[in-house]
Amino acid sequence: MTGLCLGIDFGTSNMTAYVEGRGIVLSEPSAVACDAYTGRIIAFGREALEMTGRTPKSITVKRPFYDSAVSDFNITVRMIKRFVDRACKGTILKPNIIAGIPSDITELERKAMRDALEMSGACRICLMEHSYAAALGAGVSFSKPEGTMVIDIGGGSVDIAVVSMDSIAVSKTTRFASEAFTDDIIKYLRRERDIEIGYLTADYIKRTIGGAVIRNEEIALISKGRNIVTGTPINFEITSTEVYWAIKEHVDMILQGVKELLSKTSPELSGDIYENGIVLTGNGSLLFGMDAFLESASGVPVRLAKNPGYCVAKGLENAVHDRKKVKKSGYEFVYAESI
Ligand SMILES: Nc1ncnc2c1ncn2[C@@H]1O[C@H](COP(=O)(O)OP(=O)(O)OP(=O)(O)O)[C@@H](O)[C@H]1O
Ligand SMILES: [Mg+2]
């Protein structure tokens, strides 16, 4: 196959690119800032995300994958094109792109992704489920008839899968994930304390003092917001216990998903999972105590993968290196019209 191979994990929160021979070269928030009137892209990635809540009316920050990849197709295509151009700068030939997709992607979304990649300049395309790529990237060996559960907790989706014999035996995707925790914190402060905060502040609170378990020693931080009643800016304190309760319902829903999938897994594979355990990938897994919570609530040993946010991209890299092997599992680079 001629041309450069590029692996891209198009995540709801972050896009990560692997380039053949160069490793992981780029990771940027999936965000663009556009001129509200002309649609022209003004900023991209981290630069765009940092403008959230700080732009004049003439500029809007968009996160095209947040609702669905097809929600704003034109913006999606332009954002992907920017990302591809940046990842393979200096390359003249059209790249072959392997992209990570959610396991439960609809036909419409699959088609949109294919079209977006083609319009962004891809030559051949291969679409690989997040769970499969995450398992490869986390170093799970799943060639044998033995099951392991992989849970990829991203920003917008939790992909749970049991992998065995080089394929996905059963899987389940929930269309909410760590960004739902962030929204929970915003809603909690508005509802219970009449405080309004922006997305970036809520994300910082989640990462710094959030948790899937109550901490032995409560911690707190002082943050900036706006009093909804008076309209004035305020400094306020929020504790780890408050954040724990604010996000608990969504954390519990992830556990529910795990239990549902275990109940649909054959007794043989379930037995293997209790032995081999669960591997956590995705940056959402970095929430304090997520591994301990899932382990104690499910009774299955849980391991957090190394660099969890890069596992999907790393798996796409492994797939490019071992094209023959993944071809047997149905993953092949083809021209867009044949997907
Ligand atoms: N240390 C941390 N603690 C808690 N959450 C974190 C931490 N670091 C990152 N996150 C959260 O992880 C989420 C992004 O995870 P990731 O980059 O794996 O998502 P994604 O691949 O873009 O999304 P998806 O796979 O759902 O499409 C964000 O919501 C971010 O706030
Ligand atoms: Mg992801």
Descriptive keywords:
single chain; 339 residues; alpha+beta; Nucleotidyltransferase, domain 5; 6-stranded mixed β-sheet; 5-stranded mixed β-sheet; 11 helices; binds adenosine-5'-triphosphate; binds magnesium ion
Order of helices and strands: EEEEEHEHEHEHEEEHEHEEHHEHEHHE
CATH class of the largest domain reads: Alpha Beta
Number of helices: 11
Radius of gyration (Å) = 21 Å
CATH superfamily of the largest domain: ATPase, nucleotide binding domain
| Residue fraction in strands | 25-35%
Query: What's the overall average pLDDT, rounded?
Result: 93
Q: Number of DSSP strands?
A: 17
**What would the principal axes of the Cα set say about the shape?**
flat
Indicate the low-confidence ranges by residue numbers: none
| CATH architectural designation of the largest domain | 2-Layer Sandwich
Instruction: Give the biggest beta sheet.
Output: 6 strands, mixed
* Helix share, percent: 25-40%
Ligand set: adenosine-5'-triphosphate, magnesium ion
If strands are numbered along the chain, what order do they take across the biggest sheet? 3-2-1-7-8-17
Task: Describe this protein's structure.
The protein is α+β, with helices and mostly antiparallel strands and 339 residues long. 38% of the residues lie in helices and 27% in strands. α5 crosses α7. It is flat, with a radius of gyration of 21 Å. Bound molecules: adenosine-5'-triphosphate and magnesium ion (MG). Adenosine-5'-triphosphate binds next to α5 and α6.
